[in-house]
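New to this. Help decode the following:
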Amino acid sequence: MTPAAPPLPRVFAHRCGGALAPENTLAGLRAAAARGFTAVEFDVMLSADGTPVLIHDETLERTTNGRGRVCETPDAVLFALDAGGGERIPTLAEAAALCAELGLFANIEIKPAAGYELATGETVASFVADHWRGVPPLLSSFSRQALAAARRVAPQLRYGLLFEAVPRNWRRQMDEVGATTLHCAADCVRDTTIAAAAVAGVPVLCYTVNDPQAAQRLFARGVSGLFTDRLDPRDPLAAVA
């Protein structure tokens, strides 16, 4: 019998460390752990050399001093860039090692550049299955293609399907890719969706929640977890388990 998956944390630091450090950096992971977070979320896409790296946008301009598409930038150029405060873009391998060192649970958002959905899903899932130490992360994505590809490589991992507003056929879409968690924008989640997910045993996780009272209301409505840039996990209003 396959052992039951451990319960998910209730609060995740968004993009490694929320507003505590440059997004999707190792400094963010350290800042999240120092603030008391036990769980983090970060985005992964592929470089031109096929290396899985932590970055949110398909282009470099917003979060680094570089220019151009991430998927067209070789590692030698990518890793020389400043991702904020002297931090550089980390590899998934570096983030995994630091999560293990700090005892952080991770939600890895598979963030494929257009046209790289299958390659990104396969690469991330393969790395996690072969190299992740400790509790395996939750892999999530807006891309059903990427999730399906990841699950073909590593069906033993947990997967989450991301939406902004949840469509009526969300359960069918989740079943098609083998997802077990449902993620959506906090201001779009409906009570009917939360209730249906509860009946189906599907945790609902909402992004991005920065107000303690809003967090309390979401938990009271039945949301299982949330992603935040600003909540302090030591604040009782955040209702962190």
